[in-house]
Every structure is written in C-alpha cells, then in structure tokens.
What does this fold into?
Amino acid sequence: MSEGVDPSGHPIERRLPTIVSALDPGHAHAHADVWLSDVTAGYDDRPAIEHVDLAVEAGSLLAVVGPNGAGKSTLLKVMAGLLRPWSGRVEILGSVPGREAHRIAYVPQAETVDWAFPVTVRDVVMMGRYPALGPFRRPSADDRRAVAGALDKVSMSAYADTQIGQLSGGQRRRVFLARALAAEPDLFLLDEPVTGVDVTTQEDLMDVLEAQARRGKTVVATTHDLACAAARFHRVAAINRTVIVNGPSSLVLDPDVLSRTYGGHLPVLGLQAFVMDDAHHHDESSGREPHYHELDGASRKAGEPRALPGQRAGRR
It folds into this structure.
C-alpha cells in the first residue's frame, strides 16, 4: 500500500494511536458533538466496553467497526443515553447523555414492531416528529411537510399509505431512516443501517447519510461491512471492547488495524480483505435485542465472504 491515497480516494495515515489526530484532547473535546473519556459500561457485572476515549466532531460521517461482541451496539446506547456508563465521562451535544434527546435520532439494529399492526409508512415516519409535538398536539402542516420530505429522500413516497408489514426488509430500513430524518436531528446514531440490504439500497442510504454530514449533521453508524466503511464513510473507529484506532476510513484497509481489531481472524491479501457476516453474538445479553440480516433479491449465507471495493470475493 503506497503512502498518499488509497483506492477509495481517502488519504492514508500510518500512525495508529487510539485517537489519530494532530489536535490535542482539549481541542477535540471543545469541537466534539460526541465525547467520551475513559468510559466503561456493560450489563449486570459484565463489561461490554472498557476505557473508551472517543471524540466525534460535528459533520462527521463515522463508521464504527469491530468483531462480534466488540461493544459497538453498547457504545451507541451509551451515546443515546439509554445505558448509563459505569465510569468515565460522556458529553453528547455539549451536555450529559439524554438531556439533548430531542436533537438525537437513534435507530437500533432491529425494530420491535408488530408488522401486522395497521399502521402505514407515513404513520411510522410521523413518529419521528413526536418528541417535538408533545403528547397532545396534532401534526401541523410543517410536520406533514417534514414527513413528506423524509420519505422523498429515501425514495419511499410512493409507499406512504402502505401498511408497514407489506414492505421488504430493505424498504423497512429506508422507512426507519426516514423516521430519523423527519426528526431533523443534529446527531444520528444508527446501528447497522445498511446491513443485509441490496447494493442499490445500500448506496441510496449512504447517499442520504453523506448529504446529512455535508449539512453539518453528525452521523455515527455501526457496520460489519468493511467495504462500505472504507468507500463511503469519512472516518472509522475500530473497536474491540475499547477503541483500537480512530481516524480516516482508509485505516480499515490497514493490515495492522485489522489484526489488532479482529485478532488476526480476518484474512488479508494485499489490499483485499473479507468481511464475514456475524454469528449474531452481540454485546447485549441474549434476548435483549433481536438482530436480523435481511437481503433483498439475493441470498448471501452467513459466513460467505464479501470483497472490499474493487476486489472479488475469494477463498477464506
């Protein structure tokens, strides 16, 4: 791998400290929408993340990658204020977690939804407006415009009156992203938003997220797809219970980063590496949060390799 730029067009940084930045920690703290210092959190008496230091500046499009059980989902829950850390400091949008909840859109891996419930796509997206509406206000013309705009951004306007259970897995992903967009947040926390969807849907959803980052919104998304992380995100945080590296997304192609993050279990051949579908071993205790891999129009089996950009999948 030559110094300069990688095949995805991102600059390459070879230094691999926990925070790859020329900025001092105080500067990073002052300019961060998301700031964690020495954070440890978990479930019952079992830690899921330990001694995490992370600063995410406004306008970032950050991929969080790591093996199964690395703490990716837990990290998002701490950011969202859904899980209190055992120790350390967390500031989200300049305040303690949860205080600015109305400025945050959190989308978990799998929505707990009764797919037979008679609710339309438009109804689901309108739920993104509820925090601002309050318990007794009816949606206004502005709310309806926000919902229509969100559906248009994810190319789901034609399905506005469709019952949510009639949609494919990829269409549901689009709808839940539209619900997040309708909230008009400053911070998106998305747990595997493009996992298991077809290539067209993945590219469309990444276009939407990239547009939000250009508007100055901050996007933090977990993914198992290293190809997507390298090609479409601006920065990457590789974690395995703690932050291994945080820097340009080109670092996901670095053999040292892959070895340190995945423990040497991810094959690397030159610039080629493969991301393996997870075996559903996540941070949370079993049964807490169901996890699905839905693939529209194709059937890639769990464990089947997927190549990085410009490469063809080969032997593991």
About this structure: The CA atoms of residues 7 and 309 lie 8 Å apart. The longest strand covers residues 32-43.
